[in-house]
Amino acid sequence: MKRSRIALALGDLAPNMFNKVKIVFWYAYFAIRHRLNILPAFSINVRIVIFGHECRLIVSDISDFWTMKDVLVDKDYDVEFGGQPKVILDLGGNIGISSLYFALKYPAATVHVFEPDPFSFKRLEKNISGLSNVRAYQYAISAEPATVDFQHSQTSVHSSVVSKSSDESVIKVNAIDLDGALQLAGVTTIDICKFDIEGSERYIFDGFKGFKSVRNYIGEMHYDKMSLKPQDIRSIAEKNGYMYHERFIVPGKRSIVKIWKSSSTK
Questions:
Q1: Where would you tag: which of 23, 89, 123, 206 has the fewest CB atoms within 10 A of its CB?
Q2: What stretch of H or E contains 34?
Q3: pLDDT score at 265
Q4: Whole-number Cα distances in Å, 249 to 66, 69, 222
Q5: Which of 120, 174, 176, 110 is nearest to 143 (CA)?
Q6: Contact, 201 vs 140, CB < 8 A?
Q7: Would you list the domain boundaries of the chain?
Q8: pTM for this one?
């Protein structure tokens, strides 16, 4: 999708013309800043409508708009769920857009969102404020509970405990294994597990004792940041009695994968 079409599609999320123009303008501003790095950095408020609810979002870089497009325009995390989910796990909540999406689509569900980046977490807390069905935890997902190095990227969606690039600085964050995350959230079964954790999704498919306690998995695979391959994910899913579908965004490197128990979704 061309940049101008993305900007207009994002503008269509606005509740009125004023906010539509505001979104289009700031999308262009942050796109230029990302490309040329010549404009000052700061956060702005935009208003959008999600499932009939007007929401205020605090955004500060172009990646926030990319996430809005993925989640709210392209609906990458849409799941045809058989019935109303009660518990949703959002791994890699970033600034809270996916949590808003799930919390407003499924108001009877509780969303437990994990985000380790302290800069993103502050905005996440503000963006989900007012929603009584979202619980936020400032943790990374790792192999075991620990304090780990976290690569903080200027483009927030690329921050990770595994990736390294020229625009990243290293900070220390708290990490938890996925079984511990469920214990912290006080849940034993998960209806939907969304993940976008920049390579740490390997800990879902390798070492998660409660794998079968999740009815639906949906998220982004980063094969360029881990040793697991597409055939490994398919094999793990099918071995545990799940259906599997994968759509590649970048051939061989990044994909959106849906894994579900046959009785829960279509």
A1: 206
A2: helix 17-36
A3: 47
A4: 14, 14, 10
A5: 176
A6: no
A7: 1-72, 75-261
A8: 0.92
